[in-house]
Specification:
binds zinc ion, alpha/beta, 34% helix, Rossmann fold, elongated, five-stranded parallel β-sheet
Length: 221
């Protein structure tokens, strides 16, 4: 693939750990993983390296030109407009409620879910998540585990114990509680329907939404 516009003069040739192809990281695009620290996509196989071992990622960034490090810093701070929740009466059904305090994640996840043809609303923390779940009655709640005010796992448990929301599926996404012990705890004690480790990429998000939303979306692609 050749990209002519705005080509930087600095090059940072790297080997893709997945397909072995060489590419210039300065020209690569950022991935769409639901992570605060996204990485670059290999132009040959489209794989990013978010799931590479931490030591490998650190080595990559340690060797990166200052310009690329700066771009990494800026994309992490990228100011995205807050997502506006449609009113419950007009929101497209079925719908997904996303509970996370990361605005960048809201912007990526809402776009992906809307493209699947589902409605989507977002909440910033567990308290708001619970209130919006009662208001919107979503088919699926996707929540971060660690959140201010009310832990996402505990919020999920409260949702599951609300008779009005008993059919709502709850999927907990986490970067911290990745140990199988926590996974078991989340599924049993907190009654989560599924437990996913961060980072999750766009394809995984699409899959998890389709798995848990009762009716497949007909709009979009
Ligand atoms: Zn590759
Ligand atoms: Zn990624």
């Amino acid at each position: 693939m050749t990209e002519a516009s705005g080509v930087p003069t600095i090059k940072f040739k790297v080997d893709c750990p997945y397909c072995g192809g060489k590419y210039d990281a300065m020209k690569a695009s950022w991935c769409n993983c639901l992570s605060k620290d996204r990485t670059l996509k290999c132009p040959h196989c489209e794989e990013c390296f978010c799931k590479a071992p931490v030591a490998d990622r650190n080595r990559f960034w340690a060797g990166a030109p200052p310009e690329l490090k700066e771009r990494r810093r800026l994309q992490g701070l990228e100011k995205t407009a807050p997502f506006q929740n449609p009113p419950p009466e007009t929101i497209r059904r079925p719908m997904v409620l996303i509970v996370d305090d990361d605005r960048l994640l809201h912007s990526i996840a809402t776009r992906i879910i809307e493209r699947l043809g589902y409605g989507v609303a977002v909440a910033q923390d567990g308290v708001e998540g619970l209130a919006l779940a009662q208001q919107y009655r979503p088919e699926l709640v996707l929540t971060d585990a660690m959140m201010p005010k009310l832990d996402g796992r505990e919020m999920g448990r409260l949702i599951k114990n609300d008779p009005d929301l008993k059919n709502t599926h709850v999927v907990v996404i986490t970067s911290l509680y990745t140990d199988s012990r926590y996974k078991h705890e989340a599924l049993s004690q907190f009654q989560a329907d599924e437990y996913l480790s961060k980072p999750i990429d766009a394809r995984q998000l699409q899959d998890v939404v389709k798995r848990h939303v009762t009716r497949q979306g007909t709009a979009g692609r």
